[in-house]
UniProtKB/TrEMBL annotation, chain A:
The chain crosses the membrane at residues 49-69. It comes from Kitasatospora aureofaciens (Streptomyces aureofaciens). The lineage of its organism: Bacteria, Bacillati, Actinomycetota, Actinomycetes, Kitasatosporales. It comes from the Bacteria. Residues 224-253 are annotated as: Disordered. This is Uncharacterized protein. Keywords: Membrane, Transmembrane, Transmembrane helix.
UniProtKB/TrEMBL annotation, chain B:
Transmembrane segments: none annotated. This is RNA polymerase sigma24 factor. Belongs to the sigma-70 factor family. ECF subfamily. One of its GO terms (molecular function) is sigma factor activity. One of its GO terms (biological process) is DNA-templated transcription initiation. Gene3D superfamilies: 1.10.1740.10, Winged helix-like DNA-binding domain superfamily/Winged helix DNA-binding domain. InterPro entries: RNA_pol_sigma-70-like, RNA_pol_sigma-70_dom, RNA_pol_sigma-E_actinobac, RNA_pol_sigma70_r4_t2, RNA_pol_sigma_r2, RNA_pol_sigma_r3/r4-like, WH-like_DNA-bd_sf. It holds the Pfam family Sigma70_r4_2. It comes from Kitasatospora aureofaciens (Streptomyces aureofaciens). Residues 91-107 have a biased composition (Basic and acidic residues). Residues 86-107 are annotated as: Disordered. Residues 115-166 form the RNA polymerase sigma factor 70 region 4 type domain.
Length: 415, 180
């Protein structure tokens, strides 16, 4: 099962559909051009009074700092909106998503940004430390799935930025890092080794810019452990990632030193407190195995329609169907409702109450939710069952048949 | 060539002609970057165009020495960099816990868009930019690295992380929505 590829495909599709949906009408588009042009004229006039040297790229950068005060005063005032507090309508659209204050019942403990930072500092050789900061599991933006620290380290031979991050993946969801196809000059060194405990260690000596636009170097270590941990550490020969002149020929720590830091036992406590990212299918499972779900489906399919291939996980089942010479497909999702993720479809219309209990919603052409492919969705006793026919192959089942499958009492949880 | 000659009117006409054909696509990219905040997206497009105008004039002014190789693509680059810079300025001054954008201009029943935009809105500006560049604008790792001034390795890492984060936010609702 190549879940990552599948997810990327879905994302590609979703981004395209979503992006293409934004269409400025002709007048708006002309307005945008005119607005940009007017702003550009003003900016050019301000700028052209002074002699400016530098490449086009440098100029684009310079512009960011210098002109913003006036930029923000533009009539549209639009630049302020993203930072605004969540609006009532936005909140209403996402009832199922966890808010920033939602407690995380699975977290073993919390670690603060200061604890992450002090753990990191304790592993460094002697030297001066400035501009230090850490982010812990209590950081509202990171939601406990990522912690990190960064600081500027000086061993006496020049300042250097160091950045460290810790995250955790669920079993089977780690992605080991591999050395890129080496182009000359892109990396000075790269290796991936397996350690005694099964961890994979990636080490590289590279550059901030692969085209060597600046001479800034980035050396890094990345550890992925059998417990799902991923610890990344990077160092630069400059006090900033970019935009600052080099402070020394090379970053201060050797690859061996980087390795010693990322493999240190003192991270165990922090790793334990970090919540795994990815989807916790086990938590959503109804206890009905994939095999049992396939058996249920087989009993419910209309005569003449058979399953030729099934894969899936604790929650989702992807089915290939055959009828005579035609092939089609079906997606069946059965899960516990936890109120955590976007499990119920927001904004769907036309729920009907079933005689035997539960709520039914229909999607697809001819329903109250006409966009997209046909799907029947039943919520009953805290269990969600969705039976949908994706546009792969021939549509072999009618909406009524999807409904008959989804509403069957056979979809009973085992736990 | 018209590049080094001609008065302001000619230059400006060239500029307007160039950007007019690209504005629709620019706007759509901006909408994804801003996770559906169309006001902010409009502002971002105008900001990018205004910067591009300055670069355009400069390329004439310096006799073509700073000639822009692919102005259309470069306008996108300028826009993404502007976006990142604005977000950086913003996040250094204030730390909004949730930056849910104002929602406007989409159908109430379009769960795919709402779900995706909501998830994008919960990600960092750079993560969003990486995903938009790689999966919407279909840029290579190297091109993305160039736009964001990151190393290719950093782009790969960030893409992996951003995908993982998005997956956390979306569960597999995306698969179902995309399938529908």
């Amino acid at each position: 099962m190549s879940e990552p590829d599948k997810f990327e495909d879905d994302l590609l599709y979703a981004l395209t559909r979503t992006g293409e949906g934004f269409r400025p009408d002709q007048t708006d588009q002309a307005g945008l051009v005119a607005g940009g042009y007017q702003r550009g004229r003003r900016r050019w006039r301000r700028r052209s009074t002074a002699a400016v040297v530098g490449s086009a790229a440098a100029l684009a950068l310079v512009g960011t700092g210098a002109v913003y005060l006036t930029g923000n005063g533009s009539p549209s005032g639009g630049t302020a909106t993203v930072a605004a507090a969540p609006s009532a309508s936005a909140a209403a659209l996402t009832p199922a998503s966890a808010g920033p204050g939602t407690p995380t019942p699975t977290a073993a403990a919390t670690v603060s940004g200061d604890e992450v930072l002090s753990t990191f500092k304790a592993l460094l050789p002697k030297g001066g430390i400035t501009e230090a900061g850490g982010r812990g599991t209590d950081d509202p933006q990171l939601k406990g799935t990522y912690v990190g620290a960064q600081l500027v380290f000086d061993d006496g031979a020049g300042k250097s930025l160091l950045m460290l991050g810790v995250q955790k993946h669920r079993p089977g969801q780690s992605q080991d890092r591999s050395c890129p196809e080496l182009k000359p000059g892109q990396l000075d060194a790269c290796s991936v080794t397996t350690l005694a405990d099964g961890s994979k260690l990636y080490l590289s000596e590279g550059y901030e810019y692969p085209d060597h636009r600046a001479t800034t170097k980035e050396w890094m270590a990345s550890l992925t452990g059998p417990d799902g941990r991923e610890i990344n550490l990077s160092e630069w020969n400059s006090p900033q990632e970019k935009g600052a002149p080099d402070s020394r020929p090379n970053p201060p720590l050797t690859l061996d030193q980087l390795k010693a830091i990322v493999t240190d036992k003192s991270w165990d406590r922090i790793v334990a407190a970090v919540k795994p990212d990815g989807v916790d299918y086990a938590a959503l499972s109804t206890g009905v195995s994939l095999q049992d779900r396939q058996a249920i489906l087989t009993r419910l399919l209309p005569a003449g329609v058979s399953t030729t291939k099934v894969d899936g996980n604790e929650v989702v089942m992807n089915v290939e169907l055959a009828q005579g010479g035609a092939t089609g497909s079906l997606v069946v999702r059965m899960q516990k409702l936890t109120g955590q993720t976007g499990e119920a479809k927001d904004g769907a219309q036309g729920a009907t109450t079933l005689p035997e209990g539960g709520q039914l919603k229909l999607y697809g052409p001819g329903t109250a939710n006409p966009k997209g492919a046909p799907m029947a969705e039943v919520v009953r006793n805290g269990i969600l069952v969705q039976v949908g026919e994706p546009p792969t192959g021939k549509p072999l089942l009618s909406l009524d048949q999807l409904k008959a499958i989804a509403t069957s009492p056979e979809w009973k949880p085992r736990k | 060539m018209g590049w080094t000659r001609g008065g302001r009117e000619t230059k400006d006409a060239e500029f307007l002609e160039l950007v007019s054909s690209r504005t629709g696509h620019l706007y759509r990219s901006a909408c994804l970057l801003t996770s559906g905040d169309t006001h902010y997206a409009e502002d971002l497009v105008q900001e990018a165009l205004s910067r591009m105008y300055v670069l355009w004039r400069r390329s004439a002014f310096t006799g073509g020495r700073n000639r822009i190789e692919n102005p259309a693509a470069y306008t996108h680059t300028v826009m993404v960099r502007t976006f990142i810079a604005q977000q950086r300025r913003r996040s250094s001054g204030e730390r909004p816990t949730e930056t849910l954008p104002e929602r406007e201009g989409h159908d109430a029943d379009s769960s795919l868009r709402l779900t995706l935009l909501d998830a994008l809105g919960r990600m960092s500006a750079k993560d969003r930019a990486v995903l938009v560049l790689r999966y919407w604008e279909d840029r290579s790792v190297e091109e993305t690295a160039e736009v964001l001034r990151l190393s290719s390795g950093a782009v790969r890492t960030r893409t992996t992380r951003a995908l993982a984060r998005l997956r956390t936010l979306l569960g597999d609702s995306l698969a179902e929505l995309a399938a529908r």
